């Protein structure tokens, strides 16, 4: 006999995970906290994911599911260079406050410390790097940027992605997205060939 159909999507549950992690941090996170945010019972969430670790690992895999979102944002931009900037800005949480960001960084710390999570995170990092390298090559081919070493510049942008959020939380003047835009444009400005 088939089970009852799921009325709450994994997407909604993972949005609840993201929200709850930002609010309470990964250490204090409970299945009940996520269930309340998602509008499901704790029992239903436990049946679907079994444990908090399984839920968080599924969430990490979804968040790291390739660079599809980065590519989508890039593709909707007016030019390859605009796409690089838009993709970088989209990588950060535009509306996070310092407390939320600190809670997300605590989750990142857990991911780095756990080999299974770290493997997922590393794969995501590699895919974002590969996408950014591809975008930079396209901007160079369009005559927008002079890029002598696209892989190296992509590594700089990946480092910027991680670092800007931390720096912003220590006293950024705008939003995380605004700070990312400012920093990316600053890095790319000396390489611009037009515009």
Automatic annotation (TrEMBL):
The keyword Transcription regulation applies. SUPFAM superfamilies: Homeodomain-like (SSF46689), Tetracyclin repressor-like, C-terminal domain (SSF48498). One of its GO terms (molecular function) is DNA binding. InterPro entries: BetI_C, Homeodomain-like_sf, HTH_TetR, Tet_transcr_reg_TetR-rel_C_sf. Residues 7-67 form the HTH tetR-type domain. Pfam families: TetR_C_6 (PF13977), TetR_N (PF00440). Residues 30-49 bind DNA. The keyword Repressor applies. Keywords: DNA-binding, Repressor, Transcription, Transcription regulation. This is TetR family transcriptional regulator. The lineage of its organism: Bacteria, Bacillati, Actinomycetota, Actinomycetes, Streptosporangiales.
